[in-house]
Amino acid sequence: MLEKKFKKIANPALKEFVENFDILNALADYNRMKIVILLFDNLKTGLTVTSITNQMTITQPAVSHHLKILRDAGVVAFRKEGLQSYYYLTLEEPLESIEEKAKTLRAELENKE
Fold it and tell me: What is the CATH number that goes with domain 11-104?
């Protein structure tokens, strides 16, 4: 993946940014962004894969695939209620991570001026 391609980066700030690329990658897809928006509109209850699929123009397996990418990046999580799994946003930690990376890179750029 991208981390392997840039394994020899010498700058610590840039290296840290690249190592945490999963969050940005997860949010860089139209369908995943649409899922995030749907989940944001349902913060209190969450949504099942079926209810997400019904609001999208992609198949249920494709929705499940996108949810897995978002889950692996820490953007969403799910809870089981009986036979149903309800997906919900867990954006706080990923957003804090992105903010921290941006601050580090900004400081690095200011030091170079």
Answer: 1.10.10.10
